[in-house]
Amino acid sequence: CSCGMLEILPANEIRWELVTGKTLEKSLFLKNTSDNAVAFKVKTTAPKRYCVRPNSSVIPARESMEVKIVMQPLKDLPSSTTAWKDKFLVQSAITTNESGDAKSVFENMSKDETVDQKLVCTFTLPSEGTSTREQELSLSKLTDSKSFSPMQDALSETPGSMSVNEDAKAGVEEEVHAKHSNRASSADQEKLREEQNRCDRLTKELRDARERERVLIKNLQDEKEKNDATKQALKELEKKFVELQELSLQNSRPAASASSSAGGAAPAMKYEGSFSIHQLNTFLFMVFISFIVALLIRRFS
């Protein structure tokens, strides 16, 4: 669009394809078609959404300048862009001071001495096609030109604004990184839950094994005590058996001496009302065997 002093590309429309978590950037190319220096200033209806670099300057005669328009990152996409009526206004005026402040040029001029050139913004969501963008453009063009009355100066690239912009960019990068980290960590969290469940199972098995070990140790101690008691009982029985054998031998000696004095072999003497020596030994042996069997039954019961 060429309106006497400045030729602007794009002429009437700035198209945005909206995405989340990313700064979007468009360029305006301003060409001074006159033989005089031209000061310009860029205004927008949404100053909080855009940053313009530079938002004002002076273009020497027959020279050009590129103006960057940066859209701040969006946290969420709108359900519809028909309510977005963002517009830009490029004001230009001839000046004799090429090195002066462009804003001061417009402060001392009337509206009749400035030229206004308007650009509308159209927005496309990732799922929208060309037809929706054309509909939004037609709706924007039907808007009355007086809707530019609340125009405000676009954000300039002053040191402060640059710092804000860099902070915003850093914040967006951190947010995007956090989203990627969250998506990446979902699988890690699932693996962590599986490992936690496996650790719980192993811990339970370890507790059960320790309980079985404690029971086995107790049973082993009980068996050791039983063995000690059995050994002690066997020693006592052996001691008694030896005493009975000695007593049996002592009883058999008088009988043997009596038979030898009678002068000849005689049958084994039996005392009335008592057992013979052989019967007594047999009885003691059976008692000993019975006691051992009883101890073994008790041991393995």
UniProtKB/TrEMBL annotation:
Compartments, record wording: Membrane
Domain of life assignment: Eukaryota
Record domain MSP: where: 5-124
Membrane topology: Single-pass type IV membrane protein
InterPro entries recorded: Ig-like_fold (IPR013783), MSP_dom (IPR000535), PapD-like_sf (IPR008962), VAP (IPR016763)
PANTHER family with a match to the protein in the record: AT11025P-RELATED (PTHR10809:SF6), VESICLE-ASSOCIATED MEMBRANE PROTEIN-ASSOCIATED PROTEIN (PTHR10809)
Protein name: MSP domain-containing protein
Taxonomic source organism: Hanusia phi
Lineage per the UniProt record: Eukaryota, Cryptophyceae, Pyrenomonadales, Geminigeraceae, Hanusia
